[in-house]
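Hey,

Quick one before I head out. I ran the complex with nicotinamide-adenine-dinucleotide overnight. Inputs first:
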Amino acid sequence: MRIAIVGTGYVGLVTGACFAELGNRVVCVDIDRERVEKINRGEAPFYEEGLDELLKKHVPGRLRATTSLEEAIGESDVSFISVGTPSGLMDYIDLKYVEEVSRGIGKCLREKEEYHLVVVKSTVVPGTTEHSVLPLIERYSGKKAGRDFGIAMNPEFLREGSAIYDFMNPDRIIIGCMDERSCSMLKELYRDFKCPIMITDPKTAEMIKYATNSFLATKISFINDIGNICKQLGIDVYEVAKGMGLDSRISPEFLRAGIGFGGSCFPKDVKALVGKAKEVYYRPVVLNAALELNETQPLRLIELLEKRVGPLRGKHVAVLGLAFKPGTDDMREAPSIKVITSLLMKGATVHAADPKAVPVARKIFGEHERLRLYENAKEAVKNCKYVLIVTEWEEFRDEELYRGKVVIDGRRVPEAKVAEHYEGVCW
Ligand code: NAD
C-alpha cells in the first residue's frame, strides 16, 4: 500500500519505518525541516533502538520524508495522523496540531480524485475523530466522509525504548471505523499481524487507548501507595508485589514501586481523560488520586536524603538518570526534572548522568552554574558523597558507582546495596 505518515515523532517515524519494512511505500511528512532532512539522510532524529538501522535500510527506497503535505497525500492511498496531542490548559487536551493537519488534509483532498483513507493514530479524547477531524476534512475538502474519503481511528500502544518490537508484535490492534471500506483497507494493511484485531467505532477506539494508559498509570501509583506504607512498616514492597503478581487476575507487570511514571503519555493522557470527564460533569476519583500521588513521589527521594544528611545547601549530589525511562532520550515529564529542580532550589550542586539524554537535558535546563551533565555515570559520582537513582539504565548496574556513598534509590538497582548507606524510596 502507499502510505503517508503526518508527524514524524516517536510514533509516526516508527510506524513509517515498520510499514516500509513490511513492504509498503511510505512518505513521512513533518513541518520540522531539519527532521525531514535527517530522515532523508537515513538518520533517526531521536534515539530509539533499531530505528537508525531500519532507516538506513529503506532510505532511499521505500521510505522518504517531505515537508509537503500535498505531495504526500497526492501519492498515497492512506494517511496516518501522528502529530503530538499535548496537555492544554486545566487538564484539557490541546488538539491544535491534529486540527491543523485535518484542515491541511481536507485542502489536499479537494484536489484529489481517488478515494483516500485518513487514520487518526495520535491519542485523542473520545469523540475527536468523529466530531473534530471528520467535519474539518469535510469542510476543507468539500467532500463526504464514507463516500469520497474514509476515516478511522487506530490507537498506538508502542512503548518508547522497545518501539519497533512493540509495533511489529502488538498484543492487539484496535480499529475504530464508521464504514466498511475504511475497515477493510486497514484490515488489509495489518493482514500479516498475528494478534487479535478488534473492530469498533472511533470513540470506543479512542477510549480504549485512554483506559489502557490510565489503568497502567493507576497500577503504578497503586503499588507506590502500598510501597510508601510498606516502608513505614519495615516491609519489602518488592516481596509484596511478587506475591501479588502470582495472582493471575493481577499479573506481575507494572508493579515496580519507585518514583512514579513520567514520559510523553501517561501523565498527559490521564490528565486529558480527567479533562474530558469534566465536560460531562464527572469527577474521576481514582484517576485524580493516581495523578496526585505521582506528583509528589519523585520528591520523596529528596525528603529521604535530607532526613539522612540534613540541609542540602552547598552539598554535591549525583543524579543517575535523566530520561523518563531507560532506552530513550525522551525527557517529557521525566521525574528527573522535578528532582533536579528541587535540588537546585535547595542550593545543592547537581552532577547528573544519562547515556542518551544529555543533549535533551541541555535544552531543558540551559546553562546553570550548579548543574553539570555527564554521559558517563562514573564522572558524575566522582566528587559526590550523595547519589540519587532516578532511571534504571543498565549502565548504572555497577557496584563501583556506589561504594562509600549515601544512596537513595528510586528504581531498585540491586548493585547499589554495596553503598555505605542504602535505602529505597519505598523499601
Ligand atoms: P512527537 O512530539 O514526538 O512528534 C510529533 C511530530 O509531529 C513532531 O515531529 C512535529 O514536528 C510534528 N508535527 C506537528 N505539527 C505538524 C504538522 N502540522 N504537520 C506535520 N507534522 C507536524 O509525538 P509522539 O510522541 O510521536 O506522539 C504522537 C502521538 O502519538 C501523540 O498523540 C501521543 O500521545 C501518541 N502516542 C505516543 C506514544 C509514545 O510513546 N511517544 C505511544 C503511543 C501513542
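The chain has two domains: 2-200, 230-427.

Talk tomorrow,
K.
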